[in-house]
């Protein structure tokens, strides 16, 4: 069993709360700590780099073309970069939970989870497009618009959860006792099958492989947060309503999953199967049912993340799951694959890393490296983690194993 530290101060007060309340408060506290910690570290690094580049060719170029030095420029866009990083990080964390749930129970990487994510995105978008054809979206405002979005998310969760259970039953369960490389190859095969299945369904129903998230409600509006004055003038910081929706939905999913795993009977069964399948079976746990439920839960979360991803980035296609899926897998490995808190930490760190790289690489390299290099950085991080700390940032010290 993982080691746990002593309880002092706030930790002792949390420990005295009822289990159901404690498993809601604890993950919220971790989220705040991870967001604040990662944001502070990345911000400090960027400001330090700006100080080091002061007087450089990049600094002179900014002064020439924008009449502002590299340090004021770095500070002026910093709040917006943090907001974008947090939004992207929670999306990655929500997808990474699917990898973490399956790996925690079966010690198996479900590479088809990327396509499970894509199925959810298509199911949610197609539901909304159907509502648009009925003329319902055109008048959707206020609370009704949010209700339609919730229905789209539920449609994505149902489609992805069902697909995940079918995949487990047909492609993974017969290979459960085979050498580990066999189900891994099966997962890659399933990934290609699901990609082409999405293309087949879309070609038969709409004849289009690329779908655009319909515009409705207040989701594209921007909410002003605060402003501050600099020498170059006032800097306004705002956030899109869709980004708020993504963050809130991801937080609810993460808290809900933590509650299910740690404060319910089915969660206890999941942890028992993850610990020792044979012993759990002898104690009366229906192992196949628990594993199927794990796939259902992970797939449903992936489907919800797919709809949120489509809401945020608008355009989807049958291959949309590849890069977000690989990055979510990177996030799971970065945080420590096999535990829920690791998926959360990895997602936030990777989202912030991508956001900062996309915003500042062009400036610091004078255009030699653009925002597209953020993908290279993400996978370089995966390689470094696998080399120097294969267990991830949190290693085995977190007891929240899925």
Describe the protein's topology:
Elements: H1 10-15, H2 19-53, H3 57-66, H4 70-106, H5 113-133, H6 142-172, H7 181-205, E1 211-212, E2 222-230, E3 233-240, H8 241-263, H9 265-275, H10 277-282, H11 287-313, E4 315-316, H12 322-335, H13 340-364, H14 374-388
Antiparallel strand pairs: 1-4, 2-3
Helix pairs in contact: 2-4, 2-8, 2-13, 4-8, 4-11, 4-12, 4-13, 5-6, 5-7, 5-11, 5-12, 6-11, 8-9, 8-11, 9-11, 12-13, 12-14, 13-14
Features:
4 strands; 402 residues; two-stranded antiparallel sheet; single chain; 5% strand; ABC transporter involved in vitamin B12 uptake, BtuC; two-stranded antiparallel ribbon; 14 helices; mainly alpha
Give a quick precis of the structure.
This protein has 402 residues and is mainly α. It is built from 14 helices and 4 strands. It has a single domain, classed as Orthogonal Bundle (ABC transporter involved in vitamin B12 uptake, BtuC), CATH 1.10.3470.
